[in-house]
Write a structure and sequence with these properties.
It is a single chain. The protein is an alpha/beta fold. The protein has 15 helices and 12 strands. The longest helix is centred in the middle third of the chain and has 32 residues. It is flat, with a radius of gyration of 23 Å. The protein starts with a strand and ends with a strand. The structure holds guanosine-5'-diphosphate and magnesium ion. The site of guanosine-5'-diphosphate (GDP) has 15 residues, from α1 and α9. Magnesium ion binds next to α1.
Length: 342
């Protein structure tokens, strides 16, 4: 999953990424940072199967700087990069006197910029559709008109200062918009980058209403990642910061992006596969290999907790806990699946 990291200049985007990849302040970030989500569930399955050949889902991050660019061509390139990502992570400065009002203003400034980009994209599509009606059949013209109507409605929504992900679109309509890569249709995760004390912002009513947010002290995490384990544990305790924040923030982001994972558990490898919440077993199969989805026969599924409780595929089988499911089965987070295919 590709994530664009956005924010105002100096909000801590690079520091956040450095904390995740365990770089210090002076090291230069690579253009793209790839991180594994070391999901505990894979480790547990590995312990039961007696090996630790684990493959985790990955997230790739790219820092994007649309709000500090003056050159139009460079800005378009950055916008395109955001359009091609799956979702957005906004890094919001919550240190150096940035109070709740300023924090909300900063979020608003970024969202407004994204709304502006989407409005331009939509206006261009509408223009193209209107000017390109020659030689079209009656049916094609009707389709074009209904598409234009939808786009006009979306434009009105954007005009009210609302991102498109808050517009209630039926799935069929969403499909029509797939090709335009509208930015505010993507899921947005807000990283509140605080310094040492988050109590005043955490208790603020307006801040607590923000959806998909995570309080994360980037600079502190970057510094702590340089310390030996025992010292960092001591510091964390004294500062009241939970351990494994880097893992927890990735997991929280994964969820906020609407993702879940299913597990394939073999002797050679235990692997977590990323899918969207609500995906069925046929889609899950296609993630592994198109041959498996093409020749799909059945998905044998064990619920994660049951597997951990009973300890092996065989004991689950004996207890009747392996369920044979068809293509339409909606996969649950953590499901352990064996696909049968021709
Ligand atoms: N005090 C404090 N400074 C931070 C924090 N995060 C980043 N900074 C500092 O803010 C400056 C800009 O950070 P940087 O990550 O380069 O911001 P970017 O422009 O968004 O990539 C640097 O001097 C960082 O050390 C933080 O959580 N607390
Ligand atoms: Mg930076």
């Amino acid at each position: 999953m590709d994530i664009s990291v956005l924010g105002l200049p100096q909000s801590g985007k690079s520091t956040f990424l450095k904390s995740l990849i365990k770089f210090n302040e002076t090291q230069e970030l690579p253009e793209i940072c790839t991180l594994k989500i070391n999901d505990d569930r894979l480790i547990k399955v590995g312990e039961l199967l007696g090996h630790n050949k684990l493959a985790y889902p990955e997230i790739t991050f790219k820092e994007v700087n649309i709000l500090s660019i003056k050159n139009k061509a460079a800005e378009l390139k950055e916008i395109e990069s955001i359009q091609n990502s799956y979702g957005l992570l906004l890094v919001i400065k919550c240190f150096e006197n940035n109070d709740s009002n300023q924090i909300l203003k900063d979020i608003d400034e970024i969202i407004t910029e994204l709304i502006f980009s989407d409005t331009v994209i939509i206006e261009n599509v509408i223009k193209r559709r209107i000017s390109n009606t020659k030689g079209k059949t009656k049916q094609e013209l009707e389709n074009t008109n209904s598409e234009i109507e939808l786009l006009e409605n979306l434009k009105l929504h954007l005009g009210k200062g609302e991102p498109l992900n808050s517009y209630n679109l039926p799935k069929t309509e969403l499909k029509k918009l797939g090709g335009y890569n509208l930015i505010t249709l993507k899921p947005i995760f807000i990283l509140l980058n605080y310094d040492e004390d988050k109590s005043s912002i955490e208790t603020n009513d307006n801040i607590s209403k923000i959806k998909n947010k995570y309080f994360y002290p980037s600079k502190l995490e970057m510094e702590l990642s340089e310390l030996p384990e025992n010292e960092s544990v001591e510091f964390r305790t004294s500062l009241n910061i939970k351990p494994r924040q880097d893992y927890l923030v990735l997991k929280s982001l994964f969820e906020a992006m609407g993702k879940i994972l299913f597990i394939t558990a073999g002797d050679q490898e235990i692997k977590g596969w990323e899918i969207n919440k609500g995906d069925n077993s046929l889609i899950a199969a296609s993630k592994i290999h198109s041959d498996i989805s093409k020749g799909f026969i059945r998905a044998e599924v064990i619920e994660y907790n049951t597997f951990i409780e009973l300890g092996s595929w065989n004991s689950c089988k004996k207890e009747g806990k392996v369920k044979g499911n068809g293509k339409e089965y909606i996969v649950n987070d953590g499901d352990i699946i064996n696909f049968l295919h021709s």
